Amino acid sequence: MRTICLRSMEQKQGGTIKTVKANGELGRRIRDMGLVPGTRIKVQGRAPLYDPVALRVGDFTLTLRNNEADYIDVDVE
Amino acid sequence: MQATIALAGNPNSGKTTLFNALTGARQHVGNYPGVTVERKEGLCSVGAHTAHIVDLPGTYSLTAYSEEEKVAREYLAQERPDVVIDTLDASNLERHLYLVVQLLEMGLPLVLALNMVDVAKSRGMEVDAEKLSELLRTPVVPTIARTGKGKQDLIQRAADLAQQPVNQTPLVISYGADIDKALLEMQSLISEGAFLKNYYNPRWVAIKYLEMDEDIIAKGRAVNPDLSDRLTAISARVAAHLEATLNMDPESMIADHRWGFIRSIIQQGVITRSNDSDRLYLSDKIDMVLTNRFAGPIIMLAILYGLYQVVFAYSAAPVEWVEGMFGWLSDTAAALLPPGMLQSLVVSGVIDGVGGVMGFVPLIMFMFLGIAIMEDTGYLARVAYMLDRVFKAFGLHGSSVMAYVVSGGIAGGCAVPGVMAARTLRSPKERLATLLTAPFMNCGAKLPVFALLIAAFFPANEALMMFGITLLAWMGALVAAKILRMTIIRGESTPFVMELPPYRVPTFRGLATHTWERTWQYIKKAGTVILGISILLWVIMTFPGLPENKTAEFEVMRQHVAASYPEAAAQELANADEGAELSDQAQALRGALAAVDSQEAQAALRNSAAGRIGGALESVTQWAGFDWRTNIALVGGFAAKEVVVSALSTAYSLGETDPEEYQTLSQTLAKDSSWSPAVALALIVFTMFYAPCFVTVVCIAKEAGSWKWAAFSVIFNTAAAFILAVGVYQMATLLGY
Prior knowledge:
The complex is a heterodimer.
Chain A: E1 2-5, E2 14-20, H1 24-32, E3 40-46, E4 53-57, E5 60-64, H2 66-69, E6 72-76
Antiparallel strand pairs in A: 1-6, 2-3, 2-6, 3-4, 4-5
Chain B: E1 4-9, H1 15-23, E2 27-31, E3 38-46, E4 49-55, H2 67-79, E5 83-89, H3 93-105, E6 110-115, H4 117-122, E7 125-127, H5 129-136, E8 140-142, H6 151-163, H7 177-192, H8 202-210, H9 214-223, H10 225-246, H11 250-266, E9 271-273, H12 282-290, H13 295-336, H14 341-359, H15 361-377, H16 379-392, H17 400-409, H18 415-421, H19 428-437, H20 447-457, H21 462-486, E10 498-500, H22 508-542, H23 548-563, H24 567-575, H25 584-607, H26 609-621, H27 628-636, H28 643-651, H29 663-671, H30 677-689, H31 694-704, H32 707-734
Parallel strand pairs in B: 1-4, 1-5, 5-6, 6-8
Antiparallel strand pairs in B: 2-3, 3-4, 7-9
C-alpha cells in the first residue's frame, strides 16, 4: 500500500482517503460530501479535457476539479 | 391549528417530487428577502386539518456557505416549523444521513422520509426502516415520491408529531476528548448568559463557535460581544491545541466524527446488500457513452443543438399566435379610438408593450421545459462536467454553457430566457458573471441588423461574415467574463465539488410545475416593469411632437402633391377600399403622399426626445462613424434590437419597414455617402455588445437580485461596445475601407 495524491490516481483505481488538507469553503464542501479520512473511493472517469475527475464515493458519483483533488491524499492498493 | 411542516433534504433526494405529491396544485412560489433563492410553500390536507408545507432549498449540509444553506438554516432556526421532514434517498443513505445528523443536533422535531425505496431495491439494497428509526430515535417512513406511495403515512406521522410534541433533546455526538471538554465549558457559559437562546440550543451554538461559523459569530457578537469574545477565545485555544497535537482544525475534527457516527449506524445492519457494491449501475453504463472522451462532446453538441431547436423552432408558432393576437388588438384599438395621442399611447405604448412582454412567454416556456428535462434527467450535470475545463479558464463554471447557448451562442437565441437560464448555476460569482455576459451573444433580434448591413456592404461574404460574428460574440462574452472575474466579481472560484446524480426519467408533473412556475414568475415580476419602460420609450420617441407650423407645412406639401395629379385620381384614392385595384395615376399619387408622410415621420423623430439625444450624441459617436440617424436607431434598439432596423428606416424617410424586409433600406445605405464598410463594421460590433434590450435588463435585475447590476450592464456594455466600435471604425478607415 502506498499514499498518492488524488490527482495522480488512474482511471478505475480505487483507494481509501488518508488525509484532506483543505480548509475554508472548499474543505467544508469536500467534507459535506463525505470525503473524509477512511472513505473508500474509486476514480470513475475524467472529463474529455482530463479535468474535472469523477469519483465513485459509496453509492454516488461526485466530480471535483484537479486543483481541488490536490488537497486529498489516498492510500491505494 | 394549522401545523407548519418544513421539507428539508439533499438535492436529488426527490424532495421536490414529494412536495408536489403532497401539495398538488396548491403551491405558491416566492423569494426569500434579499436573495434569489426560491421560497416554495403549499397546503396539504391531513384528515380534517390543513398543513402548511414549506419546501426548503435542497442542501447537503447546514453550514452557511451557500445562499441555499443559509436560507434553510435561518428558516429552521428563526421560524421554528412544528415538524421537519427530511427526505432521504434510500439508495444513497450514508451521504443523506449527514444532513439528518445536523438537523438532530439542532434539536428539531424530525420525521424521515426514506424515499426511493424502489430504486434501492433495484440496486440490490434493502434498508431496515425500523432499525434506522430505533438507532436515530426518530420516526422513519418509507416512501416512493414518484408514485405517491407512503405520503399519507408520512404526513400523518408529521401531523401527529406536530400535535403532541415530544420533548426532543438534541442529538449529542462525541467529537473526541479535547472538543467535548471545550463544548461543555462553552455550553455552561452560553446557558448562564442565555446567549442566543431564542433561536438555537446551547450545544449547537458552541459547535458553531468551534467551527468558526461567521454567520453565528456575527450574530453572537451583536447581542453580547463580551461573551462572544470569551467563546471565540476558547475556540482559538482548542484550535491551537489540535493543530499542535494532531495537525487538524476543529471543523474537520467535527466533520470526521459526524461521519464516524453515521458509519457506526450503517454498520449496525441498517442496509442489507445482495449485490457487490462495485457493480456498475445502469447509470454508470450510460455515462460510459455520454461522457466518453470522444463520443461525449459530439453527443453533447447534438443535444444542445436539439434543445435549441425545441426552444426556438417549436416556439415560433405560438409566438406568432401571441403576436397575431396583439396585432389584432392593436388594429381594433386603432379603429375604435380617434387618431391622436390617446390612440398612439394605447396602440404603440400599452398594447405593443404588453405584446412585447407576452411575445416572450412561449419562448421562455419552451426554454424552461428544455432545461427542466436536462436538469431532471441528470444530463445538465454531465454538460457542466464535460465543459468545466473550458469555462473555468474564463472564471466561469461548466453550467454557464446553458445561458450562453440559449442567449444566442448558436445565432438566433434570446437573452431573456438566456439570462434566466443562469439560474441553474449554484455558484454566485460565476452565475453573476454568466448572466452579465450572456447578452453579448447574438440573439434573434440582432440578426436583422447584421443581415441589413451585410447585404449592403459585404454581399459577397455573407456566410463568412455570419460565422465571424458568432465567433466574435463568444470571444467577447468569454473575455468580458474573465475581465469581470478579475475585477469587480473577483475572488476564488466556487468549489466545483458536484454530484453526478443517477440518470432518471423525469416525471410529467415535475416538468410541468417547473416550467409553469418559472414562466409565471417572468410574467408577474418582469411584466409590470417592462410595461412601464415601454411606455417611457414611447414617450421619448414621440414627444415633443412637431411644432404646429411644421405640421402645417407638411399639410401644404400634401395639398400641392394632390393638386399636381388629376382630380379623378384623388377621388379614386379617397373612395377606394383597402386592397382594391388602382389606376396608375392613383397609385402614383398614393406613393407621392406616402413619401410626404415619411418625411414628416422623419422630422417628428428628429424632433423627439430620442432624436435630440441622437443629435446631441453625434459629436461623440462620430468617432465610431455614427451620425444622428444611427444614434436614434440605437436608442430605439434599447426597446428591442430589431427596432434598430425600423428606426433607421424612419430616419431615412423610408416609412414603416418590416424588419425582415430590408432590401430598400440596404440599397439606400449602400449608396449613402455617410456610410462605408468601416461604419457598417463598427455598427455590427456596437450592436453586438451595447446595452441589452430593456426586457433583458429587467431580467438581469431580477436574477442578480439588484438593480445595481442592471444599471451596470447598461453602462458597462455600452462603454465597452463604444470603445470597440471606435477601434474598429478608426482601424478600418486607416486601412481604407
